[in-house]
């Protein structure tokens, strides 16, 4: 079974079923790789656990944003066992506070097995709450008037973590209780040292019952993600534990959760974790995600063999070690919009504008920010895949990205391949300051690098390129590059044939070569240009010698129009993108129209007002997107 659950971040129901998330595909790869592993043995010291199928194997990953990924037997029921210990420890902290709990249970690792009788000399205090002695002491601290009331509080607490109602597996409980003589002996030792101040048996029985709560790998991943989310269930948004105690729970999981394997675990895998003898393992990456693996065969230390292999691979391949964390920030997506909301600076004809009005929504631009690693890149990938059905051209803007690591590159590479398979395009903008991204893509894409990794200096050029593809697919191909007739100029809209004849003598035909500067910043504003053939771009200089494109005009359009309004010196330069033919109207001739043909001057001014209004609306649209 391969599943991606959609909670708060629901996938578009129209997204192609054949295009699962790269995260989900990676979990499936891990499941396929480790399913053949036959090492380890199913726990038998609790008879009911011996009935588990050694081939059961499920993986689940839940992010703090509420997205769930799961593969294999992720919905197979099993008992939580020792994974209950950190959660009950958190409940004890809430009931009594740190000082009292610490007086009963320490927080130092023992280096011993989970069922070791590890008590401090003299005080009898268990070394930590993750070994059985500490867990029994912790269970005794759960507040309740009756044994049934205390059990109900424990199960309700775990249910809040899991986001659903959990229940007791009575068969496993009876099996544990009938064989749990060592744990009863531990309880009596704790009573001897006054760690337990009443009859120890009810506390030991509560411990047996908390270990017998039935869960799935998905439940455990949600519980782990709740700890990663400072105690708030990322799916239900319900508070499972007060945030101030999460750090204490994760601290003992980090130092003691894997018993005599805890040191090597935190060194190599690097996430606070807890295992259980039924075959479950949870791992928590604070602020980002929770992972759970279920596979009954255990190693000599009582940890799931496949579970450790999966967590190790996840940590190494996705860079999840807790001590190698850049600041993740709130979200990696700073801004997202479509081509219907934000257009390029190329001034379009009315016909082209209509096409983009209808089809611009197929262009999606994501402005990214912060440090991109597995968890932050996953939010981008999830969002893109959720909207996949509506995206033809995807622009990823890296201008505000600080760093990108290999796990983020891996996810972006997988998305790039998916887009390529669907004949869709990804454009990477402002990515030159991230050499790792380019190197990674070059290695992974090989001979397809230049074809698939489209790196564009800025968003405007990427938008224009995408718009051109949409226009080309919607409008008939026009190879005619002859100058347009004067009746097609936007300022001559509604001009009669006589009007055009009257104004023709005032226009001077000029030709410019590609790359030639037509207007320089600071020039006198004494001419108005009608573009008959070719295209021009408007630039302003930048500090450091570069320049930024403000707009691009094509045939039929007007530029230099401010000359007839304020007559101030030119504020930008205009350069010919191609060979250009223009009709030029001097401001002197324009002024003369007021005497010879005042009605033409009025028409020109009216049309100029309409042109400027359209351009102002376009600017306002852009500002509203970036607000």
CATH class of the largest domain: Alpha Beta
Overall mean pLDDT: 90
Beta-strand residue percentage: 15-25%
What best-fitting shape do the alpha-carbon axes yield?
elongated
**Count of DSSP strands:** 22
Radius of gyration: 34 Å
Helix content estimate: 40-55%
Structural class: alpha+beta
Q: Under CATH, the topology of the largest domain is which? A: Beta-lactamase
Counting structural domains, the number is 3
The major β-sheet equals: 6 strands, antiparallel
Instruction: Tell me which CATH architecture of the largest domain applies here.
Output: 3-Layer(aba) Sandwich
How are the strands of the biggest sheet laid out side by side?
A: 1-3-2-9-8-7
In CATH terms, the superfamily of the largest domain is DD-peptidase/beta-lactamase superfamily
Low-confidence stretches: 5-17
Instruction: Count every helix, treating DSSP H or I runs of 4 or more residues as helices.
Output: 21
Question: Would you summarize the structure shown here?
Answer:
This protein is an alpha+beta fold and 627 residues long. The strands form five sheets. The chain has a six-stranded antiparallel beta sheet. A five-stranded mixed beta sheet has the order 10-11-12-13-14, with helices on both faces. The two termini are 43 Å apart.
What does this structure look like?
- With 627 residues, the chain is α+β, with helices and mostly antiparallel strands.
- The protein has 3 domains: 2-318, DD-peptidase/beta-lactamase superfamily (Beta-lactamase), CATH 3.40.710.10; 333-474, Transcription Regulator spoIIAA (2-Layer Sandwich); 486-626, Jelly Rolls, CATH 2.60.120.
- The protein is 41% helix and 19% strand.
- It contains 21 helices and 22 strands.
- The strands form 5 sheets. Strands 1-3-2-9-8-7 form a 6-stranded antiparallel beta sheet. It has a 5-stranded mixed beta sheet with strand order 10-11-12-13-14, with helices on both faces. The protein has a 4-stranded antiparallel beta sheet with strand order 15-22-17-20.
- Strand 7 and strand 8 (280-285) form a beta hairpin.
- Helix 5 runs parallel beside helix 8 and helix 15 (406-421) packs across helix 16.
- Mean pLDDT is 90; it is low at 5-17.
């Amino acid at each position: 079974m391969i599943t991606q659950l959609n909670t708060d971040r629901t996938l578009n129901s129209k997204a192609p079923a054949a295009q699962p998330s790269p995260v989900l595909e990676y979990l499936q790869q891990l499941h396929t790789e480790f399913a053949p592993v036959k090492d380890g043995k199913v726990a038998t010291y609790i008879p009911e656990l011996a009935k588990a199928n050694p081939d059961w194997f499920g993986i689940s990953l839940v992010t703090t944003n509420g997205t769930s990924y799961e593969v294999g037997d992720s919905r197979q029921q099993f008992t939580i066992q020792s994974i209950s210990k950190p959660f009950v420890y958190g409940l004890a902290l809430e009931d009594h506070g740190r000082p009292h709990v610490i007086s009963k249970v320490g927080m130092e690792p023992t280096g011993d097995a989970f069922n070791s009788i590890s008590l401090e000399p003299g005080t009898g205090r268990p070394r930590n709450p993750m070994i059985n002695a500490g867990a029994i002491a912790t269970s005794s601290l759960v507040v309740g008037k009756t044994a049934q009331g205390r059990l109900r509080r424990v199960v309700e607490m775990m249910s809040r973590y899991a986001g659903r109602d959990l229940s007791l597996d009575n068969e496993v409980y009876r099996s544990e209780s009938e064989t749990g003589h060592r744990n009863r002996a531990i309880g009596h030792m704790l009573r001897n040292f006054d760690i337990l101040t009443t009859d120890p048996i009810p506390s030991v029985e509560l411990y047996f019952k908390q270990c017998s709560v039935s869960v799935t790998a998905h439940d455990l991943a949600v519980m782990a993600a709740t700890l990663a989310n400072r105690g708030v269930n990322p799916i239900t948004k319900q508070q499972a534990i007060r945030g101030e105690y999460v750090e204490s729970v994760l601290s003992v999981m980090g130092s003691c959760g894997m018993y005599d394997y805890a040191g090597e675990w935190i060194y190599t895998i690097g996430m606070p974790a807890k295992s259980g003898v039924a075959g479950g393992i949870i791992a928590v990456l604070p602020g980002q995600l929770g992972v759970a693996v279920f596979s009954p065969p255990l190693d000599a230390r009582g940890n799931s063999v496949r579970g450790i292999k999966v967590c190790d691979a996840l940590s190494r391949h996705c860079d999840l070690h807790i001590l190698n964390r850049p600041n993740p920030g709130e979200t990696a997506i700073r801004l997202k919009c479509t081509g219907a909301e934000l257009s390029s600076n190329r001034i379009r004809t009315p016909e082209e504008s209509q096409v983009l009005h209808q089809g611009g929504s197929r262009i999606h631009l994501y402005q990214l920010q912060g440090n991109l690693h597995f968890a932050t890149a996953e939010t981008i990938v999830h969002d893109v895949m959720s909207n996949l059905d509506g995206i033809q051209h995807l622009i990823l803007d890296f201008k505000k990205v600080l760093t990108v690591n290999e796990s983020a590159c891996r996810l972006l590479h997988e998305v790039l391949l998916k887009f390529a398979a669907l004949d869709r395009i990804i454009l990477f903008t402002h990515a030159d300051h991230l050499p790792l991204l380019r190197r990674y893509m070059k290695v992974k894409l090989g001979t397809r690098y230049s074809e698939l990794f489209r790196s564009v200096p800025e968003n405007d050029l990427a938008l224009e390129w995408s718009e051109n593809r949409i226009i080309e697919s919607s409008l008939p191909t026009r190879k005619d590059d002859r100058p347009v007739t004067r009746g097609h100029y936007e300022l001559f809209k509604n001009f009669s044939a006589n009007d055009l004849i009257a104004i023709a003598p005032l226009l001077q035909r000029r030709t410019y070569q590609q790359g030639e500067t037509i207007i320089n910043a600071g020039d006198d504003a004494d001419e108005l240009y009608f573009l008959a053939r070719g295209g021009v771009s408007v630039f302003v200089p930048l500090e450091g010698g570069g320049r930024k494109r403000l707009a691009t005009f094509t045939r039929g359009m007007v530029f230099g129009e401010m000359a007839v309004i304020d007559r101030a010196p030119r504020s930008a330069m205009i350069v010919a993108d191609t060979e250009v033919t223009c009709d030029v109207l001097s401001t002197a001739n324009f002024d003369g129209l007021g005497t010879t043909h005042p009605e033409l001057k009025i028409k020109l001014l009216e049309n100029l007002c309409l042109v400027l209004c359209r351009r102002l609306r376009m600017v306002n649209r852009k500002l509203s997107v970036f607000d």
